[in-house]
Design a protein that fits this description.
four-stranded antiparallel beta sheet, 4 strands, alpha+beta, 4 helices, 3 domains, 199 residues, rod-shaped
């Protein structure tokens, strides 16, 4: 028994009984035990005798019964484990709820941000279009007469300067300028100016 190290079971928190059991009438005779003579709901196994040993009584067997000293399911340990499981389940449920709530809140903020960004994009596009139209109107007013809408002297000088640069850069072979004089053109412009002023 000492070689089998059964005493280590006591150190591990187990009670045990080594006994001889009469199979026919369920009587037993205990040889060595660490706690109560008869254990309640033990795990037991039949022990075979080593070679050279024979049972004194026929119809008997040797049995080792083992059971945790605190019982298979000690109430305080089960209650502690159930409490820990309940706490863990509550923490998981609370964490999941908090995570879902935060993700919904972030999704709402993201949707609102995308809507604001779309509105700002439309405003920016409208403002850019307005500025481009304004720039075009400035360019048109710079190079065209306000009354007639015809190109003015500045437009002529700009086009002439550009053509001369292209001739110098040999991208154009030559430039021709035609000067046309219209008699009484001032009368036409004055008439148009008066019509615009009265309307």
């Amino acid at each position: 028994m000492s070689r089998a190290g059964i005493g280590r079971l006591v150190d591990a928190g187990y009670d045990f009984t080594f006994s001889e059991v009469d199979v026919s009438n369920d009587r037993f005779r205990s040889f060595i035990n660490s706690g109560p003579v008869r254990l309640d709901q033990p795990a037991h196994m039949t022990v075979r005798l080593p070679r050279g040993f024979s049972a004194v009584n026929t119809g008997t067997a040797f049995e080792l019964a083992v059971r945790p000293a605190a019982g298979w399911y000690p109430a305080n340990r089960v209650a502690t484990e159930i409490g820990l499981l309940a706490l863990l389940a509550w923490l998981v449920a609370f964490g999941t709820h908090d995570l879902l709530h935060r993700s919904q809140h972030l999704q709402t903020q993201l949707d609102e941000s995308q809507q604001r960004q779309a509105v700002l994009g439309e405003r920016l596009e409208t403002e850019i279009e307005g500025r481009m139209d304004l720039q075009k109107s400035f360019e048109h007013a710079r190079y065209h007469d306000a009354f007639t809408g015809l190109p003015n002297r500045r437009f002529f000088m700009d086009q002439l300067d550009r053509a001369l640069r292209e001739v110098r850069g040999r991208r154009r072979h030559g430039v021709a300028v035609a000067v046309i004089d219209i008699d009484r053109f001032s009368l036409i412009t004055e008439t148009l100016a008066m019509r615009l002023a009265t309307s």
